[in-house]
């Protein structure tokens, strides 16, 4: 009985010690219908600051975000800028055509670490499906608060949580 408990404890430790956490968020509010790559509006800037506060607080220890990836667009880069600034990390800009390789890139370069990915509504479904091997709820155009937290253990299935992120006063 004791050897079994030791093996189970060892497997649990291995699973948690090398679990990769990927936070995938959707860009904040931007100007709708004006131009192809619109900037953020005031509410979007406020949401970007709140995301930075939420994900950069306690950034010196366990669970610290090791890398910030952002899909190449003005609205995504503006949304992630406060977080990257607080973490003192240069965002890694990913062209949309390379989106399909992002999950493999994250898993090879950041295994056992926490990573933040900023995309827009139509771009975040693909990496979430690739990391979790299942479909998650769709992100609608008006759902600026879409944040997924995905945990990918070395053994077993990935877990996913959709966090509603509302910006209050």
What level of helicity do the residues show? Answer: 25-40%
Which structural class best describes the helix and strand composition?
alpha/beta
**How would the global form be characterised?**
elongated
Extract low-pLDDT stretches.
none
Strand content: 15-25%
Number of helices: 5
Strand order of the largest sheet: 3-2-4-1-5-6
User: Main beta sheet: strand number and arrangement?
Assistant: 6 strands, mixed
What would you report as the Rg, rounded to the nearest angstrom?
Answer: 17 Å
Oligomer: single chain
The residue-averaged pLDDT reads: 84
| H and E string | HEHEHEHEHEE
- What is the strand tally? 6
Distance between the termini: 55 Å
Structure description:
This protein has 169 residues and is of the alpha/beta class. The protein is elongated. It has helices at 2-17, 42-56, 74-87, 102-109, 125-132; strands at residues 20-26, 65-71, 92-94, 114-119, 146-152, 159-164. A six-stranded mixed β-sheet has the order 3-2-4-1-5-6. The chain is built from five helices and six strands; from the N terminus they run αβαβαβαβαββ. The model has no long low-confidence stretch (mean pLDDT 84). The termini are far apart.
Task: Identify the notable features of this structure and list them briefly.
single chain, 169 residues, alpha/beta, 21% strand, elongated
Strand and helix layout:
Layout: H1 2-17, E1 20-26, H2 42-56, E2 65-71, H3 74-87, E3 92-94, H4 102-109, E4 114-119, H5 125-132, E5 146-152, E6 159-164
Parallel strand pairs: 1-4, 2-3, 2-4
Antiparallel strand pairs: 1-5, 5-6
């Amino acid at each position: 009985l004791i050897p079994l408990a030791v093996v189970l404890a060892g497997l649990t430790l291995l699973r948690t010690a090398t679990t990769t956490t990927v936070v995938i968020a959707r860009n904040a509010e931007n100007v709708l219908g004006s131009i192809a790559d619109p900037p953020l509006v005031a509410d979007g800037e406020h949401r970007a600051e709140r995301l930075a506060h939420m994900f950069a607080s306690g950034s010196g220890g366990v669970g610290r975000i090791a890398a910030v990836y952002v899909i190449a667009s003005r609205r995504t880069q503006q949304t992630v800028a406060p977080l990257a600034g607080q973490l003192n990390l240069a965002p890694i800009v990913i062209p949309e055509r390379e989106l399909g390789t992002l999950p493999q890139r994250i898993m090879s370069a950041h295994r056992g670490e926490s990573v933040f990915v900023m995309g827009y509504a139509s771009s975040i479904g693909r990496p979430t499906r690739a990391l979790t091997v299942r479909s998650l709820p769709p992100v609608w155009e008006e759902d600026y608060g879409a944040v997924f937290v995905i945990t990918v253990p070395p053994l077993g299935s990935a877990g996913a949580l959709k966090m509603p992120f509302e910006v209050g006063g």
